[in-house]
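$ ./design --mode recover --in tokens.txt
reading tokens...
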């Protein structure tokens, strides 16, 4: 047992109380029974009308500081009242209907002392004897916060100076102030969940989250949007490259929609290359779009070749390779960028599932992108998709061969790309969420022996699959075989 008594405690445990007599004693006992004893326990009674004040007064432990609100102020305002009285180096949140396991404060205190760059930490917890997992590291947490809160609030352990710097809880978000709190902390620096199970969480019908579900969702939506907007301001610039061959007015309409959608993210810059017998795409000038036309008489669109040109010319170190018909929610794009920044050579900004949108829905979304509803459209069964859109570390991806120009037309290059990086043992990631594909009629290549083309592409794919890491590395360095095209650019 760690027993360190000082004039200024190491930890201030904050627990507001409002008509909590049913579970209150168990919660209080779980804090007073901690193996780490150098703390003050600030209990704020929010004008309870039951036996809660009486239960609290029954304790004689000198570490308890009892504050009573004259009128009902609300959960998070009460926490701020406690914060004003706190003397500890750290703030530990606590709720009256949960139980802290004996090692909670000791484990979190030691972690924060050993990791001065971390601003706050939570932990895993039990619900009805089941361990609830949460994202642990800072990057995964920032990604998760784009969608929802990923912390058990009463498990939070925060540096007091950080709480004071951000002004505590924002009373504007009455029923979701904990989500807002961790978002604001995350914007300041590192935040994590410990892998230790240190709390028992109790679910019951009197919880705020159960009694005020609609209002909580309303506030959470506002917090989520604010967080995403702030994150977007801090994102590094990203080049999205799109090679074009427009066969129909429908595909042109898709492209306009995709461009408009991508440009909603202020960190995105777009490079377009149209290769055809004549120019079909025209657009109003935009400061974040670069366009180039290449005269090309070939019946089959040499997409891999033009992608390599676009990759080499891209302005930024992170490059997205996009089809002209796909939409991906902004949060997934942000998450993919973070994965590449974190060391991945390639990241798919979706979970491998395409959602194909019918013609009528595609028409509606082209007119109003906010018409896109999560999970709509039909999904093809089979293996996870490896096409449509992905982001790469430009330098490392080109060193790994870039796009394989041995392919003629579309299809197998998507599978070969992933297989090659796997053989080279280069990290690949995926984000959560779906990719949405706008409708367009597919037209066969005219004047092309499709059977011969398929056989050729199959040989190119198998040629990569049969190589060892050493053989593939040598081929890349020597620019031989399927990578001989590199000779023209070095």
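writing sequence...
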């Amino acid at each position: 047992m760690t027993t360190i008594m000082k004039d200024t405690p190491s930890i201030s445990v904050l627990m507001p109380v409002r008509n909590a007599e049913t579970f209150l004693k168990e919660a209080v006992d779980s804090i007073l029974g901690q193996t780490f004893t150098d703390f003050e326990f600030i209990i704020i009674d929010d004008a309870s009308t039951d036996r809660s004040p009486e239960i609290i007064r029954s304790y004689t432990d000198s570490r308890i500081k009892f504050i009573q609100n004259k009128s009902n102020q609300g959960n998070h305002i009460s926490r701020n009242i406690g914060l004003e009285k706190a003397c500890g180096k750290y703030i530990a949140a606590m709720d009256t209907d949960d139980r802290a396991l004996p090692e909670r404060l000791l484990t979190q205190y030691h972690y924060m002392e050993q990791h001065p760059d971390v601003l706050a930490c939570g932990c895993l917890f039990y619900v009805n004897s089941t361990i609830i997992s949460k994202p642990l590291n800072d990057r995964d947490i920032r990604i998760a916060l784009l969608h929802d809160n990923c912390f058990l609030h009463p498990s939070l352990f925060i540096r007091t100076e950080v709480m004071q710097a951000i002004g505590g809880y924002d009373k504007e978000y009455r029923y979701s102030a904990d989500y807002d709190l961790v978002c604001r902390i995350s914007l300041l620096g590192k935040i994590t969940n410990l892998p230790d199970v240190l709390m028992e969480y109790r679910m019951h019908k009197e919880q705020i989250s159960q009694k005020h579900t609609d209002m909580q969702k309303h506030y959470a939506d506002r917090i989520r949007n604010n967080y995403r907007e702030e994150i977007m301001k801090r994102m590094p610039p990203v080049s999205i490259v799109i090679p074009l061959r427009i066969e129909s007015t429908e595909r042109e309409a898709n492209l306009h929609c995709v461009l408009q959608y991508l440009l909603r993210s202020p960190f995105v810059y777009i490079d377009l290359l149209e290769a055809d017998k004549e120019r079909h795409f025209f657009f109003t000038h935009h400061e974040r779009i670069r366009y180039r036309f290449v005269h090309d008489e070939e019946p089959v669109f040499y997409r891999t070749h033009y992608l390599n040109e676009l990759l080499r010319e891209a302005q930024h170190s992170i490059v997205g390779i996009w089809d002209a018909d796909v939409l991906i929610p902004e949060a997934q794009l942000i998450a993919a960028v973070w994965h590449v920044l974190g060391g991945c050579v390639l990241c798919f900004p979706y979970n491998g599932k395409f959602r194909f949108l019918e013609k009528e829905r595609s028409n509606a979304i082209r007119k109003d992108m906010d018409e896109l509803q999560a999970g709509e459209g039909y999904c093809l069964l089979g293996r996870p998709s490896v096409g449509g859109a992905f982001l790469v570390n430009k330098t490392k991806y080109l060193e790994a061969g870039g796009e394989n120009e041995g392919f003629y037309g579309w299809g197998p290059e998507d599978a070969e790309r992933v297989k090659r990086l796997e053989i080279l043992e280069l990290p690949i990631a995926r984000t959560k969420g779906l990719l949405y594909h706008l409708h367009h009629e597919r037209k066969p290549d005219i004047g092309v022996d499709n059977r011969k083309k398929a056989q050729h592409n199959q040989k190119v794919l198998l040629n990569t699959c049969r190589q060892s890491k050493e053989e593939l590395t040598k081929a890349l360095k020597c620019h031989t075989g399927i990578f001989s095209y590199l000779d023209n650019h070095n």
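exit 0
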